[in-house]
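Handoff note, outgoing to incoming analyst
You'll be picking up this chain. Sequence as last confirmed:
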Amino acid sequence: MQRRPSTSPQPRLRWAWLGASLGFTLAFITQAPAHWLTRAIEQASGKRVLLPDARGTVWNGSAQWVLNEGPLNTAVSANLAGSPANTTALPTRVTWQLGPRIDWAQLHLALSASITSTCCTPEPVQVAVSPMWRGVRVTVSNHTSSWPASWLVGLGAPWNTVQPEGQMQLQTTQLQWTHQAGQSQLVGVAELQMQQLSTRLSTLRPLGTYRVRVKGGTRWPSHSTPSRAACNSLAAANSSTGASASTARPRPRLMQKPRCLTYSTSLANAKAPNRF
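Most recent structure output, in case you need it:
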C-alpha cells in the first residue's frame, strides 16, 4: 500500500503570518494619529507653531493653529502646569489632507497637501513636496488667502509690542522653491498686503495699506546672502515695474528710499516703504 506524502502546515502558516503583518502595517500607516504629524511640525518650527487638539489621522485631520513665542514660553508654561501663555490662535480650525501624487511635468512622485481654514482660505491651499536628486522642490498653488494681523502677536517681539490690527492678504503666483546641491532658488511671486493696518503705537487709525512683493528668479548658495549690489538692482527693477506700492490715509507721509529686505533663508528680496 503506497503512502501519500504528508503536507506540512508550515508554508500555510508563513503565508498567514505574512498576510497579517502586511495588514497590520497598512492599518498602522493609514490610521496613524494626527498628533504624530502635529508634534513633528511643532518640533521643526522650534515650538513657534503649535497645533493642539489634533483630530483625525496624519493623512486627514484637523487642529487648532496657534503661534507661540518659542520653546522658552512653552517650557515655562509646562512648569506652571498650564497651557502656553501669550499665544494667539486662528478663529477656526485648520484642516489638512495629505496624499501621494505623480508630478507628470517632472515625472516625480510628490507628497501633496491640501490646507484649509474657514476664516482665512476661500479655497484650499495646495502644497506639493517633490524629492529631487540631491534636493527637494516645494510648489504652492496660485491662491489668495486672508489672515488676521493680530495673529502675529503670539510670535512675541516685536509683534507683541506693535500689536498690529487689520488683515493680511497673501497672494501667490507660480510660487516654487527648489533646493538642490547646496543651491536654493525661488521662482514665482508672493505678495503680502497689510490691509487697514493699525497699531497701538499710533493714534492714527488706520495707518493705511502696505504691500510687500517677493519675486524669485535668482539663485544663491544656501549658506550665503546676496550682495548689496544684487539687492539694490532688484529693488530698482521692482521700483521701475511698480512692484511695490502703498497707500496711507488721511494725509500723505514722507516717502523714504525703499529698503531691500533680505530674508533669513537668502532666497529672495522684497522692498517696502519705511513707514514707522
